[in-house]
Amino acid sequence: SYERMGEVFMLENMPETPLNAERVAELTGRDPVMSRIRDFIQNGWPHNLEDGLEEEQVRPFKARRDELSTYKNCILWGTRVVIPPKIRERVLGILHGAHIGMVRMKSLARSYVWWPSMDQAIENAVRHCEECQQQQKLPARASIHPWEWSEVPWSRVHIDHAGPFCGQQFLIIVDAFSKWLEVRRVPSTASEHTIQCLREIFATHGIPEVIISDNGTSFTSEAFQLWTRRNGIRHTRIAPYHPASNGQAERMVQETKKTLKKLSTGNWETKIARFLITQHITPTSTTGLSPAELMFKRKIRTCLDLLQPSVVRKVRENQQKMMWAGPRTTRTFDQSATVLARKFGGSDEPRWQQEQIVRQLGPVTYETIDERGRTQKRHVDHLRRSSPETTEESDNNDSLLQEERSQEQMTRDRPEDLAVTEQLPTINQRPQRNARLPEKFRDFVMTSRKGGMSCIEHGKPGLRVRKTSSMDEEDGRL
């Protein structure tokens, strides 16, 4: 009995027979439907189906009956081998062995094999491949969700560090309302240096209500958190690895680096001062006013004011909120839903890992928990549904279509500029004088009729004067 059990185990552990034409022909003969189809191809198709055959099973072959043939007991459609149902899963595994995309896998399969609904089977195989799902690219970006418009200056500020840049570290502070910029050179990104710099700036402009920052160590430290709480500041951090959420500061970081790199003369303090004074007096495209006007309700004096002896135009405050709306719909996830979260690690590790939604923190942010019980703050751009999604080629087409629709929607929905230009009356600045005829022309009348003596009046040639005679007066002519 033990020997027989050993034989059974050996049979169960034997490797599968390699797929070849003989194996396909053998399984074709064993399948009740495929064997009858082979007989129909060799002996002719009947008018009525035999018992045991259903119309749905025969219809795909009957539609191609003029293109079907047999060779060595294998059914061929053109040059493609018709695979029996028993080994179709193995053929799919061979086709998807290199984990190629859906389109390429279909192209490869159409070069060798065929069976009814083969394309649908390939799509399901790719969508349910765990390795392919873990290495999928990022989903389409969510539509831009702007921050709420601040109503007063210095109520919400965005902060970030710029550097190392030319061996220096800089702290960037931007006011969300006026776009007023503060740049300070700091020894390092340590929390104590950041707090000291913010303390000096807040002593001038006041303590803001909200501070927006990324998840840098200087902003997430216990010392910084304690300092903000003691000063009554609400500290909001963006989703990790999504710097676009702090776009105010990120944009100013790039602008600061670009400008300081262009300034070649002066020390760092001089370069920063020149950059800031220019930034403070330059009108922004959003409001049409400079940050200084929005911050202090007045223009600050610069060397450029020496060029104008007086201000003749009244500055009008024109503000508008840029709403970037598009056809993209922000993806939402239900509480306790299982999702695939972006994994930021080495290139050899899977790009996605399963996590569970704990709660929604904001319009585009969620709190998730992983298999180890760790909770994280996630942006929707880093979350995907655990259900299969489209392949790489389909995602690319969808992204391009969404971008084109987004541009059309933005053109239709963007409000017209509200810039109002006051029409000032035209004032002739040249001096005026009263024009009159000389005394010697007192008895003459100006006329443009031909004849008489020519004269020039105020530099206008072609006018003639003629003396009035008594005959003309009697005739009533001039």
UniProtKB/TrEMBL annotation:
The EC number(s) this enzyme carries? 2.7.7.49
Recall the GO molecular function terms of this protein's record. Answer: nucleic acid binding; RNA-directed DNA polymerase activity
**TM stretches of this protein:** none
Q: What does the entry give for GO biological process?
A: DNA integration
The secretion signal range is none
Q: Where is this region: Disordered?
A: 369-439, 452-478
Domain (Integrase catalytic): residue spans on this chain: 149-299
Locations of Basic and acidic residues compositional bias? Answer: 402-417
- Any Pfam family from its record, for instance, is rve
**What spans are recorded as compositionally biased (Polar residues)?**
423-432
Quote the PANTHER family the UniProt record gives.
PROTEIN CBG26694 (PTHR37984), RIBONUCLEASE H (PTHR37984:SF12)
Q: What is this protein called?
A: RNA-directed DNA polymerase
The lineage is: Eukaryota, Metazoa, Ecdysozoa, Arthropoda, Hexapoda
